[in-house]
Amino acid sequence: MGTTVGAPRSRTLAPPAGVAPLAGYTVAVASDRRRHRLAALLEAAGAKVVGVQAVRAVTEADDTVRQITAQIPAAPIGELLVTSDFGFRAWVRAARGWGLADRLVSGFGAARLLASNPRAADALREVGLSEIWSTAAATTEDLVRYLLAQRLAGKRIVIQSDGIGVAELCHALGSAGAEVLEVRTYRYEPPAYADLLRRLGDLIAGHQVDAVTFTAAPTAEHLLAQASADHNRERLLTALAQQVPAYGPGPLTAAPLRAAGVEVATPVVPFLEELVALVCATVPQRAVRLQTSTYRMEVRGQAVVLNDELIPVPPGPITVLRALARNPGQVLSCADIRQAAPNWAGVDDHAIEMAVSRLRRTLHDGELIQTVMKRGYRLVVG
Known about the structure:
Blueprint: E1 26-31, H1 37-44, E2 48-53, E3 56-59, H2 63-71, E4 79-82, H3 85-97, H4 101-107, E5 112-115, H5 118-126, E6 132-133, H6 140-148, E7 156-161, H7 166-175, E8 179-184, E9 186-189, H8 194-205, E10 211-214, H9 217-229, H10 233-242, E11 246-247, H11 251-259, E12 264-265, H12 272-282, E13 288-291, E14 296-299, E15 303-306, E16 309-312, H13 315-325, H14 334-340, H15 349-363, E17 369-372, E18 376-379
Parallel strand pairs: 1-2, 1-10, 4-5, 4-7, 5-6, 7-8, 10-11, 11-12
Antiparallel strand pairs: 3-9, 13-14, 14-15, 15-16, 17-18
Helix pairs in contact: 3-5, 6-7, 8-9, 8-10, 9-11, 13-15
């Protein structure tokens, strides 16, 4: 008779000291560029990052930008935030083509001018504007932090947007009471190569990443659309709902996945540092922790922390170890291990035997995993 495979035990144990919070975990980053700043922040927390460019930007000042441009002189502007020199110059060029450039620049006259970096400040100076403010961090997020610390009710803010992530920042300012006009001089399309999204969908559906972070709504929308085209949508949604937690900077990013029945964790404010802090606080909660009289163990996504030593473990052996650690001291048959492991229904007994052998070599302790003849395997706890 097989052993019932239960829920993880001892999850209330303290995490290991001296090991980075995301060490041993793989996190996917779906963004609008090959290398996003979010990837560097996650790597600093110990994660292995798989970056996927899920959307691409095409420069275009459309009718929406023209309408906003025409509105700007109609009422006083409290703040003008320029996120990029390239985008601001593209906006001014488009305004010249519409015959609105002079009115646009004059409409900025009474506003406080905020530039995300020195190049953005130079673009403002090129049209005759001065008295430009910036922050030491030279990021758009830092300027929005500064604005959110002020009273914004009734204030009119114009933001020249340089990326899809700015939408969440605008939403936060609007929620704080400001009237926000976001000027997007780009439109967004799926990546040029569908294989980029297909690869991300396969990684998630196959549980080959431990979490996925989306930087804006289009990254999630394009992933879902590609999964539908590949007839992989249900597998993808099941993995996101049960095995691979999804994260985003705010409610706009979360909306497409929530509409599909997937919960998305978001920080209180839509800043990348807060998003990474949320990932660091919640992903390790999924680890299986165990403490005995002779050792401490924490089974992470792609590694085990054994007595505060981080040991990378291959996918097959880590799957076996996770099943055994969830049932310490109990004998698990090969059938029990298959039942406990997602996507292992077709794995035969010999493959499990080989995974156990490799696990023993990886842990440098042949006695930690015991073989009980004709019954199965167990994790020693005494």
